[in-house]
Fold this protein.
Amino acid sequence: MDQGGQPVDDLRTRLHAMESKLRRMRDQRNSHNESAKRSSDSRNSVNSQGKELREIINSRMEDQKETRAQAKIHQARRDEIQKSIRDLVSRKRGKRDDSPGKSVVIQLSETVGEIERIENRIMTDGTLSLDKENSLIKKLKSLISRRDKLIPDVEEHQIISIDLSDMDESIQKLRAEADNEHSLMIEQNKLADDIWLEIKPMLEERDFLRGEGDRLHSIYLEERAKADEVHQDIVEMLSKVNEIRDEIRSQNERRERTIREHNESVRQALRGPDEDEELADSLSERLLDGKSIKFGGIVSSDNTIQQSSTGRKKRTTRKLGTTRGRKR
């Protein structure tokens, strides 16, 4: 009987039902684990696709960024040229603009023209005093330094040089260059827009893959949680199964022990004196010690008969010898 007093057959029935349930639970746990693995594999595949797509997007966005930057360079050149045109038009109309925002081309042209004028005066004017000449040389050094600072700005924007002595031709030349820079700017911006049109569906696919990866990851976590929950139930069920198995084993051992004890008792009850080794050993010890042995039962009865027969023999025995008195 178990803790609740159930017989072994009932315990075996319960054990069989619980083992069947365990098999179903293991199958269920394995099913959840397989589903989790499929979701994990699909998630990893989607994430890999997303990673490759993001690399392509980043590369194309870098291309777009460079294209936009190139468009801004052309725009800056155009704006600078147009500023030069405005400055030349104002100069042609007799207006001199000394503001800091004057076109670098005009500033460079004016500076170069002033340098040439001072150098020509120093070389040709023989009436200059020493102080005046030193003053012109000092100013010339300042203008040369200013020219050297303006040249990189003009070269950076690749702006054409102009001749202030022929403003009409310079204005036409600058307008043509401005139109060219404007066309290049539009071309670069259109190219950047085309790259964006190429990137846009990639961004939508990237977002879809990211959402799909998150969905598959959620399924993976959900299936793993279910598998862990079933596994915990299996552990608890196994504990109960082991308890029943231990109880069945204990009952079988008690039953076998009872049968062995019963069989031994029967064998002891059916054993005769001649099969009793302890009795034989005891009698042997008494005989060796010179002690008398008393038998009972059948042995004692036989002994009595032998003793009675001996007595009768003693009474019927005649004494042999000479007889006195009577003769025949």
In short: The two ends are 98 Å apart (CA to CA). The domain at 29-217 is CATH 1.10.287 (Helix Hairpins). The mean pLDDT is 78.
